[in-house]
Amino acid sequence: MTTWLRPLMRPGDADERRAAILAWMIVLQALCALFFIGDVLADLRAGDNDGPTHLWLEGGVALVLCTGLGVLIYELRQLLLRMERVTTGLRAARGEMAVVIEGFFADWGLTPAERDVALMILKGLDNDSIATVRGRAAGTVRAQSAAIYAKAGVDGRTQFLSLFMEELLVDPE
């Protein structure tokens, strides 16, 4: 894939595209199989004397198409199940991360206002944006941020964010 296109794509896009392609292949292959099955049945009814080789060839092609159709349906089902597991895992990870965040906040003894500010910092908002959202002065948010960093034992926003990134990246074993 070209590098200029990567930023435009979400992580699940490749699986979604693959599922759509498989679904279209199933439809096209089913139509082809129906055509060959219909042709064999029409030849049998008409009693065409093209020879048994012709019927066996078309019948064989129809059988191969039907077998391929079964394989494609199985693959699509497996892909959809995998996508569902990944989505479920992401939801669980989000829930677990919320528990981890709340655990840190409780350990640090953050006030409710500091918890709000800390969550907004984790979401990537700057002090001015946090002040606007909370309806407070920017100086108040700066003071609350400094208190949060002191309670967390870090020197600033980057180290604060890295605490949570480490939790995401830590190997559970």
Automatic annotation (TrEMBL):
Superkingdom of the organism of origin: Bacteria
Residue ranges occupied by any HTH luxR-type domain in the UniProt entry: 107-164
Positions of transmembrane segments: 21-42, 54-74
Record's keyword terms, sorted: Membrane, Transmembrane, Transmembrane helix
InterPro entries: Sig_transdc_resp-reg_C-effctor (IPR016032), Tscrpt_reg_LuxR_C (IPR000792), WH-like_DNA-bd_sf (IPR036388)
UniProt protein name: Helix-turn-helix transcriptional regulator
Organism expressing this protein natively: Ruegeria alba
Lineage start: Bacteria, Pseudomonadati, Pseudomonadota, Alphaproteobacteria, Rhodobacterales
